[in-house]
Design brief:
By secondary structure, the chain is α/β, with parallel strands linked by helices. The protein contains 6 helices and 11 strands.
Amino acid sequence: MQQQVLADIGVFGGSGFYEFLDNTKQISVETPYGDPSDKITIGTIGNKKVAFLPRHGADHRIAPHKINYRANVWAMKSLGIKRVISPCAAGSLQKHVEPGSFVICDQFVNKTWGRCDTFFEGPQIKHISAADPYCPELRKLAIEAAKQNDIKVHETGTILVIQGPRFSTKAESKFYTENGWDVINMTQYPEVYLVKEMDMCPLNISLITDYDAGLVSDTEPVSHEAVLKVFKENNEKLKKLLFTLIENIPDERNNCNCANSSNV
């Protein structure tokens, strides 16, 4: 892949984040895997060039299982990006993980199906380890950024990724909770793994919006409207966390092995 270094850091997320970038421009990127979810907005935060791509499209028109994850990740890599931050809305599966808090996940469990989830399906075949899927350096920096902004943060957590777009049944949610998984989402897989395959550093920041089917807290089951309401209420905290994190990320990657993921 011929790279043009147009940005240092990539962010997948919901629309609105790019409105707070400075000196923005939008570009279209063609990929061997089809079109990304939308145009990419490039701007600045401090002295960092940041590329933002709304994974569902700017008007939230793409369902989780229909996102072209390979095109999105390939597009980021083609811009010369080395680190990718993936904030997302997520439901809680454990009572102590309260809505409005953040979880810096360190593991995932994949329960999706039918999604194209590798760049190495032939003729080049590689088996990239997913034992520790998230970048340890970025995770540490994200935790520090949350604390700097007095944001309640859980420093570890396992994110369960379901197919969507439907939410869980009560029976499913009970099963997930009993397995000890912490949060639930529809987009982290294969996004994180594809970032790793491209030798970029992956980071997830889960903003907790609800208690899934409501069992662990004796509350109403999650609804799309409730998710949007809590996400909007906490969007300012997310932006503060992201901006502090991005400003604190060093230029060179010295405390992780993500650059060599595909060579291990």
